[in-house]
Design goal:
Number of helices: 0
Radius of gyration: 13 Å
Helix content: under 10%
Shape: globular
Strand content: over 45%
Distance between the termini: 40 Å
């Protein structure tokens, strides 16, 4: 059974940092690229980070480039998203996603004073 176990969301002041984790179960994690998306209230889902199967290449949109860092550990079947200098516009529900396999339930991130 495919499962994605996300953790690490929470409330942080603007300028702060948070780290998210996503444990993937039920499939061969190392066979797939990995993505993190977010969805803010009233807005469309936005792709915020992509990492290749072996972690040798990452891609970010301009909105988070230089502040977010995606990584993975294929031994632990886990993907990570490190976020720094968080802004109020980073607030939303963050999902890990494996194209063609599925995605997690999401974890809430709120950057607010």
């Amino acid at each position: 059974q495919v499962q994605f176990l996300e953790s690490g969301g929470g409330l942080v002041q603007p300028g702060g940092s948070l780290g998210l984790s996503c444990v993937a179960l039920g499939f061969t994690f190392s066979d797939y690229a990995m993505k993190w998306y977010r969805q803010a209230p009233g807005k469309e889902r936005e792709l915020v980070a992509t990492i290749t199967r072996v972690g040798d290449n990452t891609v970010y949109p301009a909105s988070v480039h230089g502040r977010f860092h995606i990584s993975r550990d294929n031994v632990k079947n886990t993907a990570y998203l490190q976020m720094r200098n968080l802004k109020p516009e980073d607030t939303g529900v963050y999902y890990c996603d494996v194209p063609g396999v599925g995605r997690g339930q999401g974890t809430h991130v709120t950057a607010s004073s």
